[in-house]
Structure formats: structure tokens, C-alpha cells
Amino acid sequence: MDKWIESFTNSLVRFVRKEMSEYRLYAVVSPLTRFFDTLTNCYIRLNRKRIKGDFGTDDQVHALSALGRVLNLIVRLMSPFTPFFCEYIWQNLRKVSGASEESVHFTLLPVPDDSLIDESIERRVQAMRDCIDLVRVLRERKGIPVKYPLKEMIVVNRESQFLDDLKSLEHYILSEVNVRQLTVSQDKHKYGITLKADPNFRLLGARLKGDQKKVVDYLKTKISEAELE
């Protein structure tokens, strides 16, 4: 997870610098603000025990060092957009990092370290996060709180790469969704899965008006499951 968060952060630095160099400032604010949600709800959440030192001092130092490097990058990257927030974090970082610059605004925008960027790690963690989010949604729909353990979760996907990515991070998934076993498969027929198109009546009504019924009838009767795949 340390490699992932450093790769993810440096990818963000590269993206922001590219967008800013082409004056697309509007494109960088949303990814920057979402970053802290990713940092807190994914990296820190999944590494709570390491950060607290439950697995030993050496592992705790590795986790805290990675977190410190990431925060150093992100506050410098975000400082033009959220100056006071980043200055607050910077002053707290100075207490433990020994940074010589008195203000984050005396520093330059960071440059991405391409040697730390690993797209395969980012892909695997994104697959894990998507899976965890879907399980949480399903639990909520069924009224089953996360505190109640489940025997098994079955993930069906036609992409073998996606399934391999999930299995590589299986222990994180099982821990987060409180399930004892993860089963993956590419065979949707084995589990009775079918696909169908459900019309969005509000959207279709606004766009198609009088032709809405024709489109709805077509979606319900003419589109095959193979086409939906």
C-alpha cells in the first residue's frame, strides 16, 4: 500500500502539472479535493494498525514515512488552490520533518518522480476499491450492516485481469467488507446472472418527448443480452 499511495500521488502531480501547463485550471480542482478522501478512506484506513505500530516499530516507521512524503507533495501541489488549509498542514509537518521553508508558499510546485509511478499497482487498488464500494452498496440495499460477517462474496466479471487484481488484494477486501471468503468467476451463467436494459424515464422523457415509448419498447424487446455485454 505504501508503493500504491506514492504512485497515486506522483501520478496526480504529473496530471496537475500537465493541466496547469495548458491552462486548464478547472480540470485540477476536483482530483485534488478527492485526493484527501482517497488518502483517508483508503490508505490510512487500511493501514491503521501499521501506523499505530501494531506490527512493529520498523513497519510503523515505513508507513509514517510514506505518509509524510505524500503529505509533503500534496500540500505543495494544492497550495495555490487552498492556501490556508495547506499552510496549516505545512506548519504541522515542519514540527516533525524539519523543513527549512517557513511557509509552503516559499516552495515550488513538486515534480513527479516517474520511478515511483506503477500503473499496475494503481489498477489493482482501484479494482479493490470498486469492489469494496459495490459490496457496501449491496449491504445497504439489503439492510445488512458491515458489522455482521458474511460467509462468502462472489464476484463475476468477464475480465480475468480484474479478477486477478482482486485476488491479489483479497485480504484487504475481506477485512473491509467483513466477509470470510472471496470467490471470483468469469461464468455468469453458473450463478444465474442475466443482463437487461432499464430505461431512465426521466432522462428519456426530457430528450425524446413523444418518441419515448418507441425507445422504451425497443430497449425492452429488441436488445439482446449479447449486445448489452
From TrEMBL:
Q: Which UniProt keywords apply?
A: Aminoacyl-tRNA synthetase, ATP-binding, Ligase, Nucleotide-binding, Protein biosynthesis
Name of the protein in its database record? Anticodon-binding domain protein
BP term (GO), one: isoleucyl-tRNA aminoacylation
> Does the keyword Nucleotide-binding belong to this entry?
yes
What are the GO MF terms of this UniProt record? ATP binding; isoleucine-tRNA ligase activity; tRNA binding
Q: Lineage in the entry?
A: Eukaryota, Metazoa, Ecdysozoa, Nematoda, Chromadorea
Q: Which residues form the Methionyl/Valyl/Leucyl/Isoleucyl-tRNA synthetase anticodon-binding domain?
A: 2-153
